[in-house]
Amino acid sequence: xxxxxxxxxxxxxxxxxxxxxxxxxxxxxxxxxxxxxxxxxxxxxxxxxxxxxxxxxxxxxxxxxxxxxxxxxxxxxxxxxxxxxxxxxxxxxxxxxxxxxxxxxxxxxxxxxxxxxxxxxxxxxxxxxxxxxxxxxxxxxxxxxxxxxxxxxxxxxxxxxxxxxxxxxxxxxxxxxxxxxxxxxxxxxxxxxxxxxxxxxxxxxxxxxxxxxxxxxxxxxxxxxxxxxxxxxxxxxxxxxxxxxxxxxxxxxxxxxxxxxxxxxxxxxxxxxxxxxxxxxxxxxxxxxxxxxxx
Length: 295
What we know:
It contains 12 helices and 7 strands. By secondary structure, the protein is an alpha/beta fold.
């Protein structure tokens, strides 16, 4: 196992939020991730996830997270559901190639029954991915045959080259997931990733991703931003919706859906009588690759 500090604290926090969601009654639950607790390295978090099997403890832990990081727990579980829905819709319309960029402890390839129809490429830093692969083998008994793990040092290797070398087929209808990553990289990396998605994909392919609003990035005292900074993974980049739409257009993509706090409340929380507080600091986007005009 790599040193504790080599495992992304952010990825651990997201896994804990997904584990806590299992304590919610099924009729109110946004998703079910039976593997999330298996990716926790901190013993306190493992114990907490196990206790979440008792509903009252799960509710108490949710309240604690809401007090500590106002609005962030709801944002995490709602963004998970947003991307789940987009991926399921893509698989239903025939997409058979999925790339998860900065995969962390994403378990969609294992927990969604529809995922077995497609070939998944999980891209991540070597240390986090090596540990995840060992945990996946332990939790499932073996690595799934439809998943390819792509370890990459983003400072030394090109994303497109790494994907193609792993068997990703350029020009095929594809779906990309880029969740909880853009705030940790610079603008050049965002531009390069958007260009890579457009270059590798057939028209009609989609990219589901999240971003932090620049106004939230400027609030250094915000609990979630402060926690990221303390954990050694500070937020460095934010956007505003109109600016982001222009960046997508420049790379041949168009935004077909976007959701922030208001949309999450209307789509996911209110229909299930979930009284979670949610802030609009993070937003989810679904973009589609357009047919490029002829030269």
